[in-house]
Amino acid sequence: MLRNVVLGLLMMFLSLMTATAKSPYHLVTFKFKNKQDRSKAADFVHLDVIKGNEGKAIVNSFDLKQIQKNIPTLISSVKKLDLPGPSIKGEEETYQFPRGDEKFHTYKELTEKLQNWSRQYPNITNLSSLGTTIQGKQIWILRLTHQNNLRKEPPPGIIFMGSHHAREHLSTEVPLNVLEHLLKNYGKNPEITKLVNERDIYYVPMVNPDGAMYDIKGRRYKMWRKNMRSERNNLYGVDLNRNYGYGWGGRGSSSSRRSDIFRGPKPFSEPETSAIKNFIEENQHVKIVLTYHTFSELILYPWGHKNEGVGGRDQQVFETMARKMATWTGYTPQRSSDLYVASGDTCDWAYGALKRFCFTFELTPRSQWEGGFYPGARVIDRVSKANIKPALYLIKHSKDPYGVL
Ligand code: 0X9
Ligand code: ZN
User: Fold this and answer.
1) Which of 112, 127, 282, 370 is deepest in the core (most CB within 10 A)?
2) SS3 for 54?
3) pTM for the whole thing?
4) What pLDDT is recorded for position 48?
5) Are 242 and 345 in contact (CB under 8 A)?
């Protein structure tokens, strides 16, 4: 633990040292009396950490002005961070992770890996694209199921997604490694073999490849969250986890382009969210959705846009599953809105519009001081391993989610 904290502080220090001098980002600490206070703050900024009555957020200069104007009494301190600000020109076109973090996959490496796997395991995989991003990249989806299932009505299914948010690179590595575990153990491990034979499993490890690659452009992390929506060379970006169409436009999202929680001009205005929407709508047998994010070590479920649970048996299913998965990961199971109210996220839509059981996993670390969005490559294996059991559990129960009751 102490080692993690020391390493985290060192990583932060190094990343601050290597960043450029010009910085639009600040670390803001809030003091909250209650949940309402947290949601008030979440109306303006994205809260990265909540612990006790304190919250922390890394905010851009626009968001900083907004909170100073609207909720000054909730702010306890503001610290300037030396991180480079957004721009779409003037940077060399290298898409490589910063030194020491090369184990994370670039979009190109991800593409090659998925293509290799689909060649290596032709009887159980199929690689295709859900559509293209703003910058024209393919949004890869790898289907994992025995080829016999392709000729008939597909068996019950599940989708795992990563990297809706650009800077949350670990959320691509975890599904990728769990997928690799399934591939390598097919035909060896009876449980995995059975699941691949009897389920339809989908992986979209990088929903927002434009943003993820922009975040590492020039080999420096930029703390970028949104996609790459721009106008006349002016990058602003849309928060893809505020752009889904259930309760869209409500609390915890912004109508301002410059905000880090900008929801976009209308629901599903972005090619990335609309590609996911089309896929989940068209595949009714996909009964469970898991969207990986970072960080804070949480397992979240609807509702997120209002301070209520979904009620009835469905709520029991969410709670039972989340509690069970928490035993393997040590993550905290929680209703999304208990964290803070935010509208337009993936899970509110998947459940609200289509009744799919949907979880948001906020992966490692637990805190900003252990690296926040940039915990370093050394955590990848450990976090991936911890996420195998929850994935197998959800794959199993995608046949009948109510079976957990
Ligand atoms: O705010 C988000 O989009 C998610 N956290 S993250 O740090 N990865 O950005 C959490 C979404 C949870 N949903 C709601 N609270 N509605
Ligand atoms: Zn996220």
Assistant:
1) 370
2) strand
3) 0.89
4) 85
5) yes
How many Å lie between the centroid of ligand 1 and the Cα of residue 47?
Answer: 8
pLDDT at residue 266 is higher than 60: yes
Using most ligand atoms within 8 A of CB, pick from 169, 345, 358, 359 the residue to mutate for ligand 1.
Answer: 345
Which runs of E-coded beta strand occur in 6-88? Answer: 26-31, 49-51, 54-59, 75-80
Residue 342 has pLDDT above 70, yes or no: yes
Q: How confident is the model at residue 18 (pLDDT cuts 50, 70, 90)?
A: very low
Q: Which residues contact 150 (CB under 8 A, 6 or more apart)?
A: 126
Tokens of 283: 């595949």
Residue 21 has pLDDT above 90, yes or no: no
Decide the pairing of beta strands 200-204 and 157-161. Answer: parallel
Atom from ligand 1 closest to the CA of residue 295: 7
Q: Is 38 in the pocket of ligand 1 (CB under 6 A)?
A: no
Instruction: Decide whether any atom of ligand 1 lies within 6 Å of the 360 Cβ.
Output: yes
Catalytic residues: 362
Residue 168 CA, ligand 2 centroid: distance in Å: 6
Output DSSP code: residue 72: G
Q: Is the distance from the beta carbon of residue 56 to the nearest atom of ligand 1 less than 6 Å?
A: no
Distance 96 CA to ligand 2 centre (A): 21
| H-assigned helices in 199-235 | 209-216
152-198 confidence digits (pLDDT tens): 999 999 999 999 999 999 999 999 999 999 999 999 999 999 999 99
List % helix, strand, coil for the chain (3-state, nearest 5). Answer: 40, 20, 40
User: What is the distance between the alpha carbons of residues 50 and 305, in angstroms, rounded to a whole number?
Assistant: 18
